[in-house]
């Protein structure tokens, strides 16, 4: 079966995988996690600011937040990365040197903040407005009520969506390679691609894909677990019925049945 041998040589060449494994672990996986975590942290901070601006009553706060969100959610991720990475390259060189690494993180942060801001806004607005009114009735200021009561509840409700956004950032981190990262800054995709070019087969890229799955699949199941837990909640078991309750139930059931039949 020649076709099966060709598939194995092209995608499952274990010698090529073993050769690139140290680089994928030491360079690619590390940089992918660094880019993703920093982009998520910065995106979370900016997203919370956008969420607060988005629910503000004053138009001069709400409208800019809406425009920002629409722009960065509407543009393709690769376009945003190229615009930021190439448009601010000279400015970045003065601060960080020739490395485009910080600009890649910045671009992913801007994209993530637009989505995370909407996630936070939806979570905050899902909290019953009566809680805010109760806090104000107790003498709390609007800022204190939001910070201590409303926002923590809203954030707890959107934790599954935030984990989903982190998964999206991990996958989008592969697009940073368009900026031309240094050898020590290459992420999983770039390491796998370079090795695939050198070895002449796609096995290193397959191994890079396996590493992406190792990161994203457990997080996906974690999201499903949290989602089910928050949606269903902890259902308490009904207390056992006493003997008197069972007798009453057995006595009333035939009577109710006769009443329905009549």
Describe the structure.
- The chain has helices at 2-11, 14-54, 59-74, 77-87, 89-96, 101-125, 129-137, 142-157, 159-172, 188-199, 203-232, 243-261.
- By secondary structure, the chain is mostly helical.
- It has one domain (9-261): MetI-like (MetI-like fold).
- α2 packs parallel to α11 and α9 (159-172) runs antiparallel to α11 (203-232).
- It is found in: Cell membrane.
- Keywords: Amino-acid transport, Cell membrane, Membrane, Transmembrane, Transmembrane helix, Transport.
- InterPro entries: AA_ABC_transptr_permease_3TM, ArtM/GltK/GlnP/TcyL/YhdX-like, MetI-like, MetI-like_sf.
- Residues 29-223 form the ABC transmembrane type-1 domain.
Order of helices and strands: HHHHHHHHHHHH
* N- to C-terminal distance: 75 Å
| Strand residues, percent | under 5%
Strand tally is 0
Helix content: over 70%
> Can you tell me the residue ranges where pLDDT is under 50 for at least 5 consecutive residues?
234-238, 241-262
The DSSP helix count reads 12
Kindly name the structural category. mainly alpha
Radius of gyration: 27 Å
**Would you tell me which CATH topology applies?**
MetI-like fold
* Global shape: elongated
Sheet bearing the most strands, described?
A: none
CATH architecture identity: Orthogonal Bundle
Give average pLDDT, whole number: 83
CATH superfamily caption: MetI-like
Number of domains: 1
Just give the CATH class: Mainly Alpha
């Amino acid at each position: 079966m020649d076709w099966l041998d060709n598939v194995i040589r092209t995608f499952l060449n274990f010698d090529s995988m073993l050769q690139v494994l140290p680089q994928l672990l030491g360079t690619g996986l590390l940089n992918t996690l660094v880019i993703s975590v920093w982009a998520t942290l910065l995106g979370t901070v900016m997203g919370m600011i956008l969420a607060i601006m988005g629910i503000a009553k004053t138009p001069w706060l709400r409208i800019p937040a809406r425009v920002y969100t629409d722009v960065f959610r509407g543009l393709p991720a690769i376009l945003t990365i190229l615009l930021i990475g190439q448009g601010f390259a000279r400015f970045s060189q003065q601060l960080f040197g020739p490395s485009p690494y910080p600009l890649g993180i910045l671009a992913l942060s801007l994209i993530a903040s637009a989505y995370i801001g909407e996630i936070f806004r939806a979570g905050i607005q899902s909290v019953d407005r009566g809680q805010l009114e109760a806090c104000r009735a107790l003498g709390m200021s609007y800022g204190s009520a939001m910070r201590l009561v409303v926002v923590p509840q809203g954030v707890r409700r959107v934790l599954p969506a935030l984990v989903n956004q982190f998964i999206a950032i991990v996958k989008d981190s592969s697009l940073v390679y368009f900026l031309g990262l240094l050898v020590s800054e290459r992420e999983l995709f770039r390491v796998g691609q370079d090795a695939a070019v050198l070895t002449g087969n796609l096995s290193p890229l397959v191994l890079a894909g396996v590493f992406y799955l190792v990161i994203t699949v457990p997080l996906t199941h974690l999201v499903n677990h949290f989602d089910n837990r928050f949606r269903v909640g902890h259902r308490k078991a009904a207390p056992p019925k006493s003997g008197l309750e069972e007798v009453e139930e057995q006595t009333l059931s035939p009577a109710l049945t006769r009443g329905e039949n009549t």
